[in-house]
Design brief:
about 140 residues; about 0% strand; single chain; mainly alpha
């Protein structure tokens, strides 16, 4: 909206139009409407694709098993971190990455961040998996 609104009056008109058309009768929306109605179809399928793409990056595996991974590394004597410190480190890195993402959206488009960001996440997670399989604990 802000890209095309060259002045405050145009921006106000866009906002007014969005207010008028958003959420009307959305409580009556059925799954069939969301998936196949011309008004909602594109947004619904884009979001479903995004959800699948996001889950396939593997972030849940890291979140759920990072404690186990760090315990295994500690039991071999190859880790400089305790499992608790490792979990804290993962959490801090995720927090900092979230903060950075809110700033980079000002520079890059959301689509660019979505595609390249998730591609990067997939590469990093594949690296973690390979390092874990090959028992290169510093890489993990």
């Amino acid at each position: 909206m802000y890209k095309y609104a060259t002045d405050d009056e145009t921006a106000r008109k866009y906002i007014e139009r969005i207010k008028q058309t958003s959420g009307q009768k959305s409580s009556d929306l059925t799954l069939k409407d969301a998936l196949f109605s011309e008004q909602y179809r594109r947004a619904t399928w884009v979001n479903i694709g995004y959800i699948i793409f996001h889950e396939l990056t593997g972030i849940n595996v890291i979140n759920l098993y990072c404690n186990t991974i760090f315990k295994e590394m500690e039991s071999k004597g190859k880790s400089i971190l305790t499992p608790r410190q490792g979990v804290y480190l993962v959490g801090v890195v995720q927090f900092l990455a979230s903060f950075c993402s809110t700033q980079t959206v000002r520079i890059f488009s959301r689509r660019t961040l979505l595609l390249w960001g998730h591609f990067g996440i997939a590469v990093v997670h594949a690296g973690v998996a390979i390092f874990n399989i090959e028992e290169i604990d510093i890489g993990v």
